[in-house]
Design brief:
Strand content: 5-15%
Number of domains: 2
Helix content: 40-55%
Number of helices: 6
Shape: elongated
CATH superfamily of the largest domain: HAD superfamily/HAD-like
Order of helices and strands: EHHHHEHEEH
Largest sheet: 4 strands, parallel
CATH architecture of the largest domain: 3-Layer(aba) Sandwich
Distance between the termini: 10 Å
Oligomer: single chain
Strand order of the largest sheet: 1-2-3-4
Length: about 140
């Protein structure tokens, strides 16, 4: 079997930390006597680094490209799995296949992933389909 790699976003894809994120942002705003952003505004920055969240910049392909470089695998043997625009855009910028999970923080209709899955059980077949077509 040909080597391949699956790159997972953790927050929102593998771990539901929504309540903790909302509480932390609300507490930070409260500590400065500021009204917190709305739930949807807070969740729209999930997945961004702090500087990106503050400036609303999109992430570049560096993390995915670094993973490919570290493993020595070409982009057509990799898939990026995430639940936010930023992770899907990062994967696309790196030239890897992209899968959006339907249980994340961003609406799936706003993401431009190659596939959308609604459960973990769908992932193996979806990964195989995307990566096997590149062989």
């Amino acid at each position: 079997m040909t080597k391949r790699i699956v790159i997972f976003d953790v927050v929102g894809t593998l771990v539901d930390s929504q309540a903790n994120i909302l509480a932390a942002v609300s507490a930070a705003y409260a500590s400065e006597n500021l009204a917190p952003p709305s739930r949807s505004e807070i969740l729209s920055i999930v997945g961004l680094s702090l500087p990106q969240a503050l400036t609303r910049l999109m992430p570049d392909s560096d993390p995915a490209l670094q993973t490919l470089q570290d493993t020595g695998l070409p982009s057509d043997r990799a898939v990026m799995i995430g639940e936010t625009t930023d992770y899907i855009d990062m994967g696309r910028a790196a030239g890897v296949c992209t899968i959006c999970v339907g249980w994340g923080y961003h609406p799936t209709d706003s993401l431009q992933a190659e596939r959308i899955v609604r459960s973990f059980a769908e992932l193996p077949a979806t990964i195989d389909h995307l990566l096997d077509r590149a062989e």
